[in-house]
Every structure is written in C-alpha cells, then in structure tokens.
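task queued by scheduler; priority normal; single chain, no ligands, no partner chains; default sampling; output format set to structure tokens
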Amino acid sequence: MRFDNVPIPPSIAARPRDVRGYPVPAITPWEGEQPQFALTDYGRSADCARGRLCSVCNLLMPKGPVWRVVGETESAAIAEALAAGLPYRNLSPTLEGPGHRACMLYASMVCPYLARPNARRRQSAEQPDEMTGHVVRGTVRGTTGAVVGFADYEYGITETRVLFRFIDVVEFLPHDNADEHLADLRTELDRLAGS
C-alpha cells in the first residue's frame, strides 16, 4: 500500500515532511534539508525519553501503555513467551523509543523498512558498535514484525545514546506485511476522534 493511502493520525499530519511527502519522525536527524530516516538524533531521543514524548509525533504520551514496532527476533521472542504463558521483558536495551498506539501502527505501515519483509536498509550506522552493528546497508528486515504495547518503559541516557527497556506486554499485533494493521489503525483513529 502506498504511504499516502494510509490514514494519518492528526499528530503525525502536523510533522515536517521530506521531498517525497513522508512525515519525519520526531527523533529523526536532519542533514541540511534532508532527514536521515535510518538514524536517530541523540538530543531529540533524550528529550522524548525525559518528557514522555512520542518518538514519532513528539506529543505527550499519557500515563499508561506505550507502543513500539519490533523486528523479527524480538517478535519471535514475544510470541514464544506469550504462547508459553510467560511474561516477556526485553532485558537487552534498545535504541528505539516508544510512541502512541496510532503513531506506531502508522509507522509500521508507512516506513518502508518496517512494513515489508523483503525491505532492506538504505544506510548503515555512522559508528557501528554492539548495539548498532546490525544497522548495515542492505540488511533485510526479516519475515515478521509486530506492533507491541507495553505497560511502561525505562530509559537511560549516556553520553552518546539513549537506551530503552520495555515492561510487560499488554498488546501483541504481529505481522508479515504491516498492511495487516490497517483495520487496527482505522479503529484507533476513530477512537481518538471520539475522545
């Protein structure tokens, strides 16, 4: 599905856009007039973590659940834990911050890397290390992903990065192709409009 056919949350509609019309997430750094979608801006990510701001739209996330999009490995680990009736907690921190449910459903469908199992990264990490070594140009996303709701998050801010850990899965929406979330996104936008 083309990104401009996906219903857009009002909070994201207000975001700046790149030359193609893609909304630019709050944590995306800019190089001149070009957003660097595959990278994360340290300062913006830290501000979002401290202020409980959505990493996509940059607006306050109310107390309660937060969401994020996960890739194949974490999606499989969550599915396995849930199937076994076990709790899941990501003990390894991640660089990806949380967001609103609508924002993460939208991002999962619109971001080319998140949306399709055959999608490949367009850029590599600027300074790869143990946490970003997987961010390599040409890397395939993997066969599955998921939009996951968590009861809350924890964060730590170092000199060079912001690290997140997520607590207690409250919703698990797996996908092969993120277009599968279209009905969930529409329902969520209707719910928000009625609030």
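post-processing summary
- The two ends are 28 Å apart (CA to CA).
- Residues 131-138 have pLDDT under 50 and may be disordered.
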